[in-house]
Amino acid sequence: MAKKDIDWNNLGFGYVKTDKRYVSNFKDGAWDDGALIDDDMITISECACVLQYAQTVFEGLKAYTTEDGRVVCFRPDLNASRLADSASRLEMPVFPEDRFVDAIAKVVEANIDYVPPYGSGATLYIRPYMFGSDAIIGVKPANEYQFRVFTTPVGPYFKGGAKPITIRVSDFDRAAPHGTGHIKAGLNYAMSLHAIVDAHQKGFDENVYLDAASRTKIEETGGANLIFITKDGKFVTPKSNSILPSITRRSLEVVAKDYLGMEVEEREVYLDEVKDFAECGLCGTAAVISPVGKIVDHGKEICFPSGMEQMGPKTKELYDTLTGIQMGRIEAPEGWIKVIK
Ligand SMILES: *Cc1c(COP(=O)(O)O)cnc(C)c1O
């Protein structure tokens, strides 16, 4: 095994082509056997359903090297079941969940020399996705699909420590009450691009979306769930049918309760009460937790007592414990770590 000659500590979050990808095609009502291939290009009809009607769903997870030198993934079975839910909502055939986990293991093993070493902070990002691939012009689901998994090494999310960010309350809505906010579909991201460009132009790091029906409750940002810590040390996270069920957030709930002895509440969180929380963070696979120092609601600043210099103390405990579990420094709950090699 010879690691690729990559400057792991200075990798950014960009696409770097690796050696192998996994592909399986769905045709005539069945998935084929699937294979690892070299070709990073896809040739499809100019009228492919994905290009016309955005029939595509995806996942994101990471492989990394643990303290004792194993290469592992974190809870890929949950990515498998979430992709199945996403596919069903868009009338796409489900890729079998056991085959999904097997495909992840195969593609990581085939690109093992791109898995960054322990301690670098870098990881091998894994992108499974599927899309309607045959020509569709009348509005209906495709007949043929491709499931594909590629990998790309990515640098540490935080270079030089996790600095709290500033997010703004968005005037755009992300998801309707009975819409598609709970699935991981490209369409939810396409419509967030304008809001994110606008937020950046105005000096904010992210948008926090409110519930579209009443615009009084916190939902999530474009790509991460929110967590809050109360002044008396409770873990609170918004409950809503239109937010994406983050695997990181669900894992943090277990960590908070079982490892840190915190009380955990999943409930509606009103924008009005946010000023009373002690700490706030965004959670997702990419950063695990990004601390939020400030939420700006149309010129009104909600500043968390944890400040703009460092993660809040409880947020840091959560972060250290979950990353400790992921990196093999702390014993994981049964079934959380999938060893690849
Ligand atoms: C992917 C995603 C998340 C984070 O989910 P993880 O499973 O923790 O990576 C949160 N919100 C949205 C909208 C997402 O697409």
TrEMBL record:
Keyword field contains Transferase: yes
Residues found modified as N6-(pyridoxal phosphate)lysine: 184
EC number(s) stated in the UniProt entry for this protein: 2.6.1.42
Enzyme class name: transferase
GO BP terms, alphabetized: branched-chain amino acid metabolic process
Enzymatic reactions: L-leucine + 2-oxoglutarate = 4-methyl-2-oxopentanoate + L-glutamate; L-isoleucine + 2-oxoglutarate = (S)-3-methyl-2-oxopentanoate + L-glutamate; L-valine + 2-oxoglutarate = 3-methyl-2-oxobutanoate + L-glutamate
SUPFAM superfamilies tied to this protein: D-aminoacid aminotransferase-like PLP-dependent enzymes (SSF56752)
InterPro entries noted in UniProt: Aminotrans_IV, Aminotransferase-like, B_amino_transII, BCAT-like_C, BCAT-like_N, BCAT_family
Entry keywords, A to Z: Aminotransferase, Pyridoxal phosphate, Transferase
One Gene Ontology term of the molecular function aspect: branched-chain-amino-acid transaminase activity
Cofactor(s), names only, from the UniProt record: pyridoxal 5'-phosphate
Pathway involvement of the protein, from the record: Amino-acid biosynthesis; L-leucine biosynthesis; L-leucine from 3-methyl-2-oxobutanoate: step 4/4; Amino-acid biosynthesis; L-isoleucine biosynthesis; L-isoleucine from 2-oxobutanoate: step 4/4; Amino-acid biosynthesis; L-valine biosynthesis; L-valine from pyruvate: step 4/4
NCBIfam families documented for this protein: ilvE_II, PRK13357.1
Family from the record: Belongs to the class-IV pyridoxal-phosphate-dependent aminotransferase family.
Protein's name according to its UniProt entry: branched-chain-amino-acid transaminase
